[in-house]
Write a structure and sequence with these properties.
The protein is mainly beta. It has 2 helices and 5 strands; from the N terminus they run βββαββα. A 5-stranded antiparallel sheet has the order 3-2-1-4-5.
Length: about 160
């Protein structure tokens, strides 16, 4: 005899993350056309960026960030490229393949529509993975030598 399921549990929305800064990785970057009420053509071209996050439970969550393609210095695309250290020089092509695999920190904000919570990426920044090494400084070395020069310490009062 098979056991009958006594409870029906509705799963939670898998694509919801806590708000704030989250570590992720860019999985893909493509130019995509979206519907838009703000453009005369009814369409807009955007850079569609898929970012992968790993939740505390080890589940993978994929979110998208899609700034409209405009080279205006105040636009979201230029802000993104600046944050990713990927702004091409004037007349040069954007290397979208160079962005794939990049470790990033994404700022997440949640919104609720029709009683459903959605996570949105509002900013993506390049994450530095290297630990900066301290530069050797002769003055610091001299101070350390003086600090540990035991000949100057008087032990008579102890």
């Amino acid at each position: 005899m098979s056991k009958r399921q006594s409870k029906l549990v509705r799963p939670s929305n898998k694509n919801v993350l806590d708000e704030g800064a989250k570590k992720g990785k860019i999985l893909s970057v493509e130019v995509k056309e979206f519907d838009s009420i703000y453009h005369g053509s009814g369409k807009r071209d955007a850079l569609n960026i898929k970012v992968e996050f790993i939740t505390q439970n080890g589940e993978l969550v994929h979110l998208y960030y899609s700034p409209t393609i405009t080279w205006s210095p105040k636009g979201r695309l230029m802000k993104l490229l600046d944050d990713l250290d990927a702004v091409p020089a004037e007349g040069e092509e954007l290397d979208t393949n160079g962005l794939v695999g990049m470790d990033v920190t994404a700022t997440i904000e949640n919104v609720e529509r029709d009683n459903i919570v959605y996570s949105n990426i509002v900013r993506i920044q390049k994450r530095t993975t290297s630990i900066p090494s301290m530069a050797s400084n002769e003055e610091d070395s001299e101070m350390m030598n003086q600090l540990f020069d035991v000949d100057d310490i008087v032990f008579e009062d102890m």
